[in-house]
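Give me the 3D structure for Pilin.
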Amino acid sequence: SAVKWVILAEVLVGAVMYMMTKNVKFLAGFAIISVFIAVGMAVVGL
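Predicted structure for Pilin (46 residues):
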């Protein structure tokens, strides 16, 4: 499903950002953003 790919992309981008910066805030930020996106898509019905 589309949601699975979006979450996968978020995780990959978050992981890359973390590896580049070693900044835990990126990981937490992307986790929060991906949850919001997943909830939003569920509400919209995708």
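The mean pLDDT is 77. Let me know if you want a second pass.
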